[in-house]
Amino acid sequence: MGIHSATTATVGTLLLAHVPNGLPHDELQQLTEAAQEGADKVVAALGDPAVWQPSTIDVDGHTFMLWMHYRDEGFAAVADLGPVLLGAHGRTPPSQWRAALLDPATAQGQLR
Q1: What's 14-81 look like in SS3?
Q2: pTM here?
Q3: What is the pLDDT of residues 70-81, one digit of tens each?
């Protein structure tokens, strides 16, 4: 998955989270298509700092690129960690982005 796919998925998921449940099929289809079109427009402007603010994320003391997009619905963020792209979205972003890499056994223990 490349940066454009990751940003499309992240923004699209943010927009789809605001589509109400229980709508008639036609209306649901229309809102879903509008969310996809909105995500596509935002992703097309990935190089525009007015749309995607470049930032950084600290991962175990190493600095990586973080792309931030703010809108009325909330925020979308995609971190470029080299071989891995990490997407997040929500209403309010954290004040400081930090992450840590865990070995699989430790990660599984953290999930329990």
Answers
A1: HHHCCCCCCCCHHHHHHHHHHHHHHHHHHHHCCCCCCCCEEEEEEECCEEEEEEEEEECCEEEEEEEC
A2: 0.84
A3: 999 999 999 999
